[in-house]
Write a structure and sequence with these properties.
The mean pLDDT is 97. The protein is elongated and about 50 Å long. The chain has one domain. It is an all-alpha fold. It contains four helices and no strands. The protein starts with a helix and ends with a helix.
Length: 123
């Protein structure tokens, strides 16, 4: 068993939970109630929100699978690679819109998953 992949999967699953619970309350609910956004924009943003949820859930499951099945290493490569890209994109967006890093901590969660995944790949 690859303990780092198990850690990466757990961190990814934790990210999904934070995304759904805290993000649902503090991001999705206000977005859906915003009168200045039309229904098409709300629908697209809501769809993107749920698409990310499914994507990162799949990444978590891929890391869990790779933790116990060495032949599934490609899932860990994909999960680590996507996590690196998401962390980088998050940092760029935070800087671009002059936000505070701790107000939008998803960059940190993606980075933790990426580091754990890369450590598992190096093992």
């Amino acid at each position: 068993m690859n303990i780092y992949f198990l850690l990466a999967g757990s961190l990814a699953l934790g990210t999904v939970l934070v995304h759904c619970i805290r993000g649902g309350r503090h991001v999705v609910a206000p977005m859906l109630e915003a009168h200045e956004l039309n229904d098409t924009v709300k629908t697209v943003l809501f769809g993107c929100w749920h698409a990310f949820t499914l994507l990162y859930l799949a990444i978590a499951l891929g890391f869990f699978w790779a933790a116990w099945h060495p032949g599934a290493i490609s899932l860990a490569y994909q999960g680590a690679g996507i996590s690196v890209l998401l962390a980088g994109m998050s940092i760029v967006v935070i800087l671009r819109f002059k936000q505070r890093f701790m107000r939008l901590p998803h960059w940190l969660m993606f980075s933790a998953v990426a580091v754990a995944g890369i450590a598992g790949l190096a093992e």
